[in-house]
Amino acid sequence: MDELEVPYYVDGDLDEYYDDPDEALLYEHLEKMSKYGRFFYMFQSCVGPTTVQTFDLVGPLLVMCFILRVVSALKLPRLVVHFVSFICGLGALFLFLKKNLVYPLAMSALGELFIVTPENWHQVRGSQMVLVMKLISLGFDMDKGTTPRPNIVEYLGYSVSVSSVIFGPFLTYSDYCQLLDGKKLGINFQLAAVLISVGTYAYIEHVFRHKLGKIFNACILARKCRPECGHVYKDGNFWVIAANLGLSFLAVFHLAYLGIMFGGDSEIQEKVIVNKNDFITGYGMNHTLGKWSDLDFASHWVALATFLLSRIIG
């Protein structure tokens, strides 16, 4: 049986020749590319429209920033400059957020009305940080559809849960619900060992730096000194820079040592079953201690030596 030959012809109307409109559009793009050249075609079809759209979006924001810069350069009262900054920011919020600008404005107003003293803020900042992390996590989970919207009682129970409201740790809403249901959470020896090590190392470094700074009267504390601190040797001193670099490299060494735990074959990791689903929770005790044993527990020995040295010099 002879094969059916399909006649090949080109019709002037691309829509009749190509049954698929996308194929016809592709042919037009290829024809333009061969006619004008690849660079000009890419500029015309991609770079140009993208640049125009970007300018339409960011252009007004740049103009308002320029206005604020000009006004701030003039010798005007600071109150006027702040007011211009407020008006320009309000315009930027309206351009990008439309009616939703009421939310950041409300937060700004509340922040201005309830500014606390440093002493009071020092007491509440830990709880505030955990609360903010909870709310952001809940918002993302609701947006992704992985968590249903809680009612007011569920929300209050989660946000100020007694298990984490003072010292933490941060828990997602799903973990909070599992905790109330008595189900297992993804906590294992690997994570606990690493976190305990991090906390211990941080305390040892804080004490060691504090004693060194006191002995040598130098700015080598764990936190950056203020310009008006009473130390004789400031940040610009060569030996202060060398000491801070050395201690920073030591911290990087500890972090690299601990970070080895978070990598490798997932087949040997422990699993926990929640709602008939398997969740990987990390490596077990034998694997974690085995990894550290291969490295001769170098980081822990260094931390112990640092602690003993801090006790000797103190």
UniProtKB/TrEMBL annotation:
GO CC, any one term: endoplasmic reticulum
Keywords annotated in UniProt: Membrane, Transmembrane, Transmembrane helix
Keyword Membrane: yes
Residues passing through the membrane, by range: 39-67, 79-97, 155-173, 185-204, 238-260
An annotated GO BP: lipid modification
Domain of life assignment: Eukaryota
GO molecular function, a single term: Wnt-protein binding
Name the record gives this protein: Protein-cysteine N-palmitoyltransferase porcupine
Organism for this UniProt entry: Pocillopora damicornis
